[in-house]
Each structure stands twice: as structure tokens, then as C-alpha cells.
Amino acid sequence: MTVDVKPAPDAEIDRLHAEKMLRRREARARMMAGKTEEKGLLIVHTGPGKGKSTAAFGMALRAIGHGMKVGVVQFVKGAWSTGERTVLERFPDLIEIKAMGEGFTWNTADRQRDMRAARAAFDEARRMVADPAYGLVILDELNIVLRNDYLPLDEVLDALSARPAAQHVVVTGRNAKPEMIALADLVTEMTLVKHPFRDGVKAQKGIEF
Length: 209
What we know:
By secondary structure, the chain is of the alpha/beta class. The protein is built from eight helices and six strands; from the N terminus they run αβαβαβααβααβαβ.
């Protein structure tokens, strides 16, 4: 008399899982086989949620870890003391940071002054994006400047389009212009779901700055 021995339920689940993972691995290998191009990317971090600049500075740390030279131009944040700037400035051979903003426009209440600051910052940005020595350039809060029409959009897009072929550029700030999004290779929109500021919690060291 033959007795059928059914596999234990967990063993069957494990077998099916292993087969599924094998199919997924094979599919990914086929997909990756066709991804051979290398190029400098234009990356845009936009949206109302927190984390746009934070993500960009995380990429700066990653680039430094690979020995890449990084340039940063901050179009809004100026004299503010931030933790990321303090850390990154410990690598003077690999990173150059230009904090050239004067705060948000409601702080200055002077449109012409804001436009002059934006122009000075863009002059530094244009120098960096024209230099192939920079593997990564971060243009922090550039989208805010463009939203307020402090710089000609076409001039900015032309400079980004003419950058060295291997150079990566990250542009941050909410309300990215449609033309910037169209030019970009990678766009991430940070969505606001919940923020403690709405409950009266102020910006905190190590979180916002």
C-alpha cells in the first residue's frame, strides 16, 4: 500500500517562493543586459514634501565616496548654518559649496536685490556646469528662483543642456517649471503627507538644518 506524503505547507510555500524569485532574477538579468549606456543625468527634486535638498546632499556624500568632485550652489540658503555644509566642507579637495542666497524673498522684500543674488549664484552655477572636473553639481532651490522669474528660464536650460556629457546635475525646489521637467532625465516629486510644522513644531537641528 502506497501512502502519499504531501509536502508540509511551509515547504511548498518556500518552493513556490524560490521559483518566483528565480523567474524575477532571470527577468531582471535580461532587463539589465540592455542597459549599457552611461551619461550625465539631469535630476530634478520637486514637490511640496520635505526631503528635496536632503536627498541631493545624500547624493553629494555618495559622489564624494567615489572620489568625484562635487559643486554646490545654494540659491536661497545663504548664511544659515546647516549640518550638511559643516560635514561636506571637511572634504575641501572634493567639494566646493557656494551659499549665495539671502533667504526667502519675504525676508528681503526687495525683488531687485533677490534678482541680483540669483544672477550672482547662477554665474557660479554656470561656471561649475561648464567644467568637466565636476562629476556632480547641485543647484539647490534653483526651482524657486525660476518660479519667481528671477532668471531667464531659457538661459538656465541652455547652460544645463551644454554641460559636459558625463556630468550629473541635481536641481531642487518645489514647483519645477514644466520645461525643466521635460529636459530632465530623472524627476522625483516629494509629496507632503504629514509635517510637524502644522502642529506648531519648529525646524529642528539635524532634521531641517
